[in-house]
Amino acid sequence: MSQQKLRFIIGLLSLLVSFASSNLTISLLHAQEKPIKPKPKTELPPGIAWEFDVPYIKDGDTAQRLDIYYPEQQPKESLPLVVHIHGGGWMGGSKFPCDARMMTAQGYVVASVEYRFSQVAKFPAQIQDCQAAIRWLRANADRYHIDAEKVGVIGGSAGGHLSALVGVTGGKKVFAPIGENENMSDAVQCVCDIFGPKNFASVMEQAEKDRNVKNIFKFNTPSDPYSELIGAKLSDKEKTTAVSPITYVDKNSPPTLILHGTHDALVPFAQSEEFEAAMKKSGATVWLQKFPGAGHGGGSFGKPQVLLLMKNFFDKYLKNADVKIELIPEAELAQ
To answer: DSSP letters along 57-80, please?
Structure first.
């Protein structure tokens, strides 16, 4: 195995672990603190530079910043971009450290986006921030050697929700644009959603009916990240419809790879089954990789065949690679 491929696999493994661990602290976080910090140290593949805490909205909130990892030298051709959106129940988490940065070893530019938390601003602030970041990245494509026509997004849990929402609403101006660069597109070419919620209107019922695991959240209370995100009870049809990626699915939704465990106590597995069915019904391309017995993350998500599936997915849609996307037999992933 080449050193570059090894770095890529290690990076994706760390990324999957971080998606799960970022959600363990969401109930402990009560306020978003985003002080301006000095650039921290981080390990990078050879020839990769990075910029820390770059504002994507001029004079914006201190959360409206991103980190970007890109080649030090001008490549022969512009490179595809992968945008990472972190998890944390829309209440916590951080864009740094970003283990997806190791994808730069395989010829990608990587950006890790911060966004305002629900304690600071209610939905749709979070999706508006992510879309503003994507438009800013396209406006600065030449500076960072980005192919503006090849943009993918990846996120886990809350970041998976926002990634899916970026995908199905891209270019539609469903949410009022903020910041500059409104002439730039916020559409993406593919989405990797790792156990993200997709339908706030059905999540309570699905959690109640789940025979595999009891959901840990007390819905419609201050400790519930779902209702806290929208600032209303989950019975509010208008708000649950607006926040749910499933609302916007159509035949033009970008190809989406979903990874989800059947015993997830934070986001019911049925959320991904429901979204998969909606995508297929609309004629959009979707894969749902089932992890039997897995919870909200876990060791099976880091298996080599899972990392290869993710790599092939991005290579196919962002590099036009001639690879076949094949789901992994469930028996290989069972816990």
So the answer is: STT--TTSEEEEEEESSPPSS-EE
Residue 28 has a pLDDT of 35
User: Burial of 243 by CB count in 10 Å (0-12 exposed, 13-18 middle, 19+ buried)?
Assistant: buried
The pair of structure tokens assigned to 171 is 């270019």
Q: How far apart are CA 313 and CA 58, in angstroms?
A: 34
**Structural domain 3-24+39-332, CATH architecture:** 3-Layer(aba) Sandwich (3.40)
Report helix, strand or coil for 231: coil
| Residue 69 near residue 48 (C-beta atoms within 8 A) | yes
Domain range summary for the chain, segments of one domain joined by + = 3-24+39-332
Q: Which position has the token pair 């017995």?
A: 293
Confidence (pTM): 0.91
Strand, helix or coil for residue 160? helix
What residues contact 57, with CB distance under 8 A and at least 6 apart?
64, 129, 132, 136, 178, 179, 180
- pLDDT grade, residue 19 (50/70/90)? low
Average pLDDT over residues 98-103: 91
Q: Which of 122, 124, 138 is nearest to 174 (CA)?
A: 124
**Which value, in Å, is the radius of gyration of the alpha carbons in the chain?**
18
Flag whether pLDDT at 16 surpasses 60: no
